[in-house]
């Protein structure tokens, strides 16, 4: 199975920033992320992944009590991590709603060379931030996805500007490049006009690995067309199997090989040597979280139209009969609403279950967590998992020291890297240049 590691680029994991063992300075102390990346590399993780957004909350309560800012800019952080790691993949989120294709193509091409071919681009349309980019507010959901399709077409077209052997650099003849091995894009579309060519050599992997995390109808359409590593937030195995089958069937219908798409649901494990120890660790993490802030964030993130933080923890969640579809994170809204309607939880139960931001929680021993992973992996629900550590460094170390060896013992996970590039880790072919077929 494939294993990714999820980070926010902020100073903490899991928002249990007041826990005595939690790092709180990782957003400005590079040594923290250097240590996390090197630990994960020793454990042979396929990749580490940075979620990102392009805005920060400004209301006084969130600023005062929530570690939502600051956070590292992903390309800057991944460039630094490329210099202190050798094998692990490096995946960064960059928005198609609030970036320009030429800049993104250039950054990832450079980073792929810098890292020796270990880079991935997580294509996101963003959950907000238009006000920071000369717009009155967030772009419309449908427009964001329409723009994303064209954005990716432009970026990948720019990556194919030059043949792999275009730059001959022959000192004797004075010939720097072969003009016959240059393709000028000349893209004229609805959202972008980009002439090209890219002023960067073709990425070592052909294209960096493309990941994506949308699960709305628009998101699944984009994933099936362009995604190679998909991050999801399924709460139960039947739901995960349905998503898995749906996206891979859509991809096959577009002429893509389903085995070239890896689906990694997000999971937050809390691990103990015994179940009692795991329960105690989870209780300690919950005690240091701010329940009011978590509930406010859930209400806002999923646009529920009610103030969860203003309700008693013992009250049933009074979900309105009609909830307008959000312009932000539609798939996460549906996931949360469907779960509330099915389970009829109290506010306390909602808070406990959804403290991982909508992803699954597993509280148990390495053996029970490996059992769960093996069941999902072997029954068509996942190709692996994106691990959302409950805390750093403790949650990360617990997973590396306890769960990874158990997965390796069962023959479910590698004990050494077989290749050097992220595509090699994932069993994905190097992307051929559409303009210069290999002879």
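Sequence proposed for the structure above (439 residues):
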């Amino acid at each position: 199975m494939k294993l990714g590691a999820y980070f926010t680029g902020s100073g903490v994991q899991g928002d249990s920033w007041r826990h005595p063992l939690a790092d709180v300075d990782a957003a400005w102390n590079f040594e923290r992320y250097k240590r996390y990346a090197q630990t994960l590399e020793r454990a042979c993780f396929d990749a580490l992944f940075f979620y990102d957004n392009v805005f920060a909350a400004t209301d006084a309560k969130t600023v005062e009590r929530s570690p939502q800012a600051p956070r590292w800019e992903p390309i800057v952080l991944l460039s630094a991590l490329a210099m202190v790691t050798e094998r692990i993949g490096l995946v960064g989120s960059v928005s198609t709603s609030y970036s320009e294709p030429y800049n993104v193509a250039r950054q990832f091409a450079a980073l792929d060379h810098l890292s020796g071919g270990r880079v991935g681009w997580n294509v996101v349309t963003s959950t907000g931030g238009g006000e920071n980019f000369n717009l009155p507010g967030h772009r419309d959901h449908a427009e964001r996805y329409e723009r994303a399709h064209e954005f990716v077409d432009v970026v990948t077209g720019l990556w194919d500007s030059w043949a792999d052997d275009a730059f001959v650099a022959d000192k004797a003849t004075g010939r720097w490049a072969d003009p016959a091995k240059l393709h000028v894009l000349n893209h004229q579309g609805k959202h972008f006009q980009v002439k090209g060519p890219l002023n960067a050599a073709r990425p070592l992997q052909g294209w960096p690995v493309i990941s994506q995390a949308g699960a709305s109808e628009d998101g699944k359409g984009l994933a099936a067309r362009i995604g190679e590593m998909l991050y999801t937030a399924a709460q139960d195995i039947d739901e995960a199997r349905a998503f898995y089958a749906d996206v891979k069937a859509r991809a096959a219908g577009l002429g893509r090989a389903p085995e070239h798409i890896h689906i990694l649901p997000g999971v937050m494990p809390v691990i103990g040597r015994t179940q009692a120890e795991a329960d105690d660790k989870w209780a300690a993490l919950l005690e240091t979280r701010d329940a009011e802030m978590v509930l406010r964030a859930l209400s806002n993130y999923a646009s529920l139209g009610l103030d969860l933080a203003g309700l008693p923890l013992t009250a049933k969640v009074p979900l309105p009969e009609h909830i307008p579809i959000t312009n932000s994170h539609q798939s996460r809204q549906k996931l949360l609403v469907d779960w509330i309607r099915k389970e009829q939880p109290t506010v306390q139960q909602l808070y406990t279950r959804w403290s991982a931001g909508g992803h699954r929680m597993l509280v148990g021993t390495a053996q029970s967590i490996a059992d769960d992973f093996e069941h999902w992996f072997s029954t068509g629900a996942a190709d692996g998992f994106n691990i959302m550590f409950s805390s750093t460094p403790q949650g990360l170390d617990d997973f590396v020291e306890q769960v990874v060896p158990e997965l390796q013992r069962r023959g479910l996970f590698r004990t050494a890297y077989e290749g050097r590039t992220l595509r090699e880790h994932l069993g994905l072919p190097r992307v051929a240049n559409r303009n210069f077929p290999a002879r």
